[in-house]
Amino acid sequence: MRGIAAAPVFSLGFRPFFLAGAGFAAIAVAVWALWLYGRLPGAQPMGGMLAWHRHEMPFGFTAAIIAGFLLTAVPNWTGRPGLNGWPLIGLVLVWLIARLAWLMPMPAILLLALQVPFLPLLACVLGRDLIAAGKRENYPVLLMVTLLAGCQALTLLGIFNEDVNLQRHGVLAALWLVGALMSVIGGRVIPFFIQRGLNRPATPAAHPLPGKVLLISAMLAAVSFAAGLNDAPRVWLALLFALISGLHLLRLWRWHDRGLWRVPLLWSLYLAYTWLAVATLAMALWHLGWMPQQSLATHSLAVGGIGGLVLAMIARVSLGHTGRLLQPSKAIVAGFTLLLLAGVSRVLLVPYSGWGLGMSALLWCMAFGLFLSRYTGILFKSRV
Known about the structure:
Keywords: Membrane, Transmembrane, Transmembrane helix. It holds the Pfam family NnrS. The protein is an all-alpha fold. The chain has helices at residues 2-5, 14-36, 49-78, 85-101, 108-115, 118-133, 139-160, 164-197, 208-226, 235-255, 264-287, 294-320, 330-349, 355-380. The chain has one domain (2-380): Cytochrome C Oxidase, Chain A (Up-down Bundle).
């Protein structure tokens, strides 16, 4: 038993959670697509497959990746030891039991109760270290993880009460909250990665005001979904989303360097972040009546933005934190391209063809499958 806790895969949070999150991403989307096309008959989980899909993508897949990243980043920010060994195994098991619970016959209240502990426990672990180290500049990250737990509670309440609107409000609030979190993390690491990856001299720090306005605006957008304000078009929300999109575009303009297009670990991050600008612009257009389906904006964020940033980030972080050269294999570069095409297919093909969703799901699963095929061995082995 002592040997299990000392295994390299449980030495730091990114190892088990990146593997678990990537594996679940491929499985969950494959199951969802097979069910949509009538290839998966049989009993459905509580609330139906739509409720399961809505819940598991932000609170299963995305939450695992967030946990892996923050359990690795916070020790760097604070200088305190990261969660490892049996405490890390325990947190992984809490996440895993919640995923498996959907497959088991049990009372509804128990099933939903098993979903609750993971995000509060993660917030407690992160908060303990951030508060002990006095890292107040990182408290917004802790706040967003805590709010994500609140979005999950709202979603679960909707599932328990069979309230589809409440489910939708909780899930969309969570999705846009993750977008806000990724704008914070992306704003920190992407320009740093570009500078280091291209051996560029350090540039003067950007004025903090646009970043603060972006954070506040993105949080307001998430709150507007939780309150159900996006159920109908509103001009003032169009202005809010247009502001967020403009601030994302300003960042992309500041970060751009022609050299990044030669480096897959950089263009994959840059293009994935571009989807955040696309998604917020699409929401602005929907509120103005110029976009036919709000779901196109939602999936621009979910597939292109969050999916793309997740794959690009876990590919780079896994190499860097295991002491390997920042040179991804051709298979992973292909995975970056496949996920980009998955986003394009989900947004541009679905309105015109029923097979667009299946194509998007297939490309998504192939991308994360390639990550697992190349990185499982790396994440199970000791640092080089």
